[in-house]
Amino acid sequence: MVSPMFSGVCLSLLAAPGLAFVGTPFIAQQVRYAPVPTSRSATGGSRSRASSTRMVATPDKVGTGVKRNENFAKLKAGYLFPGIAKRRNAYLEANPDCRPIISLGIGDTTQPIPPHILSGLVGGAKTLGTKEGYTGYGAEQGKADIREKISEKLYNGLIKPDEVFVSDGAKCDIGRLQMMFGSGVVSADPSYPVYVDTSVMVGQTGEVNEETMQYDNIVYMPCKPSNDFFPDLKALPHADVIYFCSPNNPTGAVATRAQLEALVAHANAKGSIVVFDAAYAPFIRTPGVPKSIFEIEGSRTCCIEVNSFSKYAGFTGARLGWTVIPNEVKFSDGTPVRNDFNRVMTTAFNGASNISGGMTCLDDEGMAEIEKLMDYYLENAKILKEGIESCGFKSHGGKDAPYVYVDLEGKASWDVFSEILEKAQVVTIPGAGFGPGGEGFLRLSAFAPRESCVEAVERLRAVLA
User: Fold this and answer.
1) Residue-wise pLDDT tens digits, 34-91
2) Domain 74-111+366-464 falls under CATH 3.90.1150.10
3) C-alpha separations of 92 from 82, 88, 104 in Å
4) DSSP label at residue 113
């Protein structure tokens, strides 16, 4: 027997054989009664059906009654890199017989995880298959041994193990950090899109200005060749948070010690917090150039550093990173920022993967493998930089960073992106995708395989030279 609660629904579904389920919000259906026409019998008389009416599901509204987060409506486009992938796929659909496309686009590693580091991943997985080695949830802040190793090997004791939060990557931590801060954001322009996009999502910005394509309530720091890709700090107003990345994505610029000292002094003077993205630090080879913001005096009172094993060890898929928040960094009421981030991690995160192999990344053999991997990508960057300059373009970066930033001499970056894709079958990233300040530039990623970088240069010469 059908419960009265569901009888109307069941009857309406049975009586509407053409009713489509896919894409139709179930809760938005209402039942109406429609007359059923009579049919003629073979003798010419009318023959009545079982019922003179039937129940028909009629759409009443689209969607639920839940109001959309208005901040998401401010986002003017999809995230940059999936958008690039869609354009690439559209080109392939329209040109199925084209030669293989070479990607110098997204900064995704292509070389296998080195053998010794891989042994940590494999060993960690196998250990979970034993009674003695199995573990469930890990510590939200990360295991003590890896936090100690990060402090020792990567920071030479400049930070304490209890100030390290091990996570599933720098990008994720940038989003989680946003939960703690108020409005007042400063970001380099151009910059990694996550800084601005996550600020929009959590309501720290106003609407986008359609003319400038900049969001209200965000201060954009112009970073261009004329200022050595370092902003004029004297022109900056107070802001709660300053996002800064070095080596920089997308420009490939690397901040000097003097520049970082100026940044730290500015933050301390203005009462701001610097979120320093050091994801590309292992590519630095120039002596004396800081690999961490904590090499700078005064940074422990105003700086947070995010980092990742993604580029260090090819962990873009394995997902392992960390954030450092010194105990001295405090909110205006004296509350340690570290305390609130610990609350974020215990609530919105459940610990990094316990098979991630981070410990083998940080022993001597693992560090040697990382150096070799970084050298491979830096050689790729050199090939791309020399290649694009042989086509008559000026470029930046590519020395202590895996990105080459190409000056298009006033040409629209999306136009050049399309031209290169169509004529050379090479994917790049238009500078405009990193913010208004990136217009007129193109980013080339050195994370492709060596043979792809060499062939890409040959194709670019044929089209651009």
Assistant:
1) 555 554 444 444 444 444 455 555 556 678 999 999 999 998 777 787 889 899 999 9
2) yes
3) 15, 6, 16
4) P
More confident residue, 337 or 120: 337
Q: Two tokens at 38?
A: 């009579």
What the block records as the tokens of 305 is 């550093």
Q: How, if at all, do strands 303-308 and 321-324 pair? A: antiparallel
> Shortest CA distance to 387 belongs to which of 426, 417, 421, 415?
426
Q: Within 10 A of 370 (CB to CB), how many other CB atoms are there?
A: 21
Alpha helices (H) in 271-396, listed in sequence order: 309-313, 337-348, 358-361, 364-389
> Considering the domain 115-364 in this protein, what is its CATH number?
3.40.640.10
Q: How far apart are CA 323 and CA 341, in angstroms?
A: 10
- What string of DSSP letters covers 100-152? PPEE--S----SPPPHHHHHHHHHHHHHTTSTTT---S--TT--HHHHHHHHH
Whole-angstrom distance, CA of residue 71 vs CA of residue 198: 10
Six token digits for residue 117: 């580091």
Cβ(300)–Cβ(328) under 8 Å? yes
Distance CA(88)–CA(99), nearest Å, equals 13
CA quadruple 5, 11, 14, 16: dihedral, nearest 10? -120
Q: What does the block give as tokens for 422?
A: 């169509």
Using alpha carbons, select from 104, 16, 3 the residue that is nearest to residue 59. Answer: 16
Please state the separation of Cα 164 from the chain's center in Å: 21
- Determine the average pLDDT of the residues in 134-160: 92
Query: Which residue would you say has higher pLDDT here, 430 or 47?
Result: 430
Nearest to 284 by CA among 245, 317, 314: 245
Nearest of 409, 312, 387 to residue 104 by alpha carbon: 387
Q: Is the preceding omega at residue 402 within 30 degrees of 0, hence cis? A: no
Q: Look up residue 356 and give its amino acid.
A: S
Contact 218, 199 (CB under 8 A): yes
Per-residue pLDDT for 309 more than 50? yes
**Are 369 and 115 contacting, i.e. CB atoms less than 8 angstroms apart?**
yes
CATH 3.40.640.10 boundaries in the chain: 115-364
Give the closest residue to 104 by CA, choosing from 252, 270, 302, 268: 252
CB atoms within 10 A of CB 69: 11
Q: CATH 3.90.1150.10 in the chain, residues?
A: 74-111+366-464
The whole-number pLDDT of residue 35 equals: 55
Query: pLDDT band at 162, cuts 50/70/90?
Result: very high
